[in-house]
Amino acid sequence: MIYTLAGLLEDVYAELGQLQVSTATGGTTTSLIDTKMSGGGSDRDWEEGTLLILDADGGAPEGEFAAIAAYQDNTGTFTLAAALSAAPEAEDCYGLVSAVYPVGVMLRLINHGLRTLGDIPLTDDAALTVFSGQSEYPVEASWKRRPPYRVDIQVNDDETGARWERIYDWEFIPTAPGEYGRIAFRQSLPDGRALRVWYMGPHTAVKFYNDPIAEVIAPSLAVAACVEQALRWQNSRLSGGDSFLLQRWNDAKRTLEHARLLHPIWRPKRGSQMRTAGIGGRG
């Protein structure tokens, strides 16, 4: 199963002790009703909090989340700041989080947490196409963080799917900040073929509920990194004035270091870019 932003957000909120779970009795695309909640508090209890749809029998709006714009305690009605793709139905399981960790802030912290884990292996097979007589090609900004470590050329694209072969005899040419770098090939390449570049870079930003978390990052490692960031932010916001939160942050830092050791991110070894005599030229 693909681990997505929705799963990560749910797990982080749960680890922070912020997730309250219940089931809906109805709703619309911009509201959720839970009559079991009515009369138990005040209208301000969940304002600016977060509502997550945890289970909708596998259909929409499962996994979706939104900030809570308003709450009516007398009816148990949550008004959402953004519309869901479908109305919640009776018995759909949902989660509630107070305004202590706003979802907008949490999304920024999650993205920062994923980046703090370091660069991960990525590929780009849509940026470059071979042109006859051209030997140098501009480098995307994301590839300049570290020089690309492998380049492939597409050799077919039919009903069997694309097939790629590794290219040797190329070099990366760096340039000044803000300018395009270049990849230069020493051999003539077939016109019109796509090139696939392998490189190391930061995790792609996630913002939609179904955005995937890179499979090279173990879910427990992703959760540990994001929980540490959330507690770091909360302690900074309170100027370290809450001793319990400070202890939790210290515990989270130790948990993250343990997760790094237990689930190291796979990173490829950089191979030769030159074809070696006696070896068949395939990577």
| Uncertain stretches of 5 or more adjacent residues | 275-283
Overall 3D shape: elongated
- Return the string of H and E elements: HEEEEEEEHEEEEEEEHH
Structural class by SSE content: alpha+beta
How many strand units? 14
Strand content: 25-35%
What is the topology, as strand order, of the major beta sheet? 1-7-4-5-6-3-2
Instruction: List the total number of helices.
Output: 4
**Largest sheet geometry:** 7 strands, antiparallel
Q: Helix content range of the residues, please?
A: 10-25%
Output the radius of gyration: 24 Å
For the record, give the distance between the C-alpha atoms at the N and C termini, rounded to a whole number: 30 Å
What is the residue-mean pLDDT, rounded to a whole number?
Answer: 92
Explain what you see.
A hairpin with a 2-residue loop joins strand 10 and strand 11. 23% of the residues lie in helices and 28% in strands. Helix 3 runs antiparallel to helix 4 (243-262). The two termini are 30 Å apart. The longest helix is centred in the last third of the chain and has 20 residues, at 243-262. 28% of the residues are buried. The strands form three sheets. The protein has a seven-stranded antiparallel sheet with strand order 1-7-4-5-6-3-2. It has a four-stranded antiparallel sheet with strand order 8-14-10-11, with no helix packed on it. The chain has 283 residues and is an alpha+beta fold.
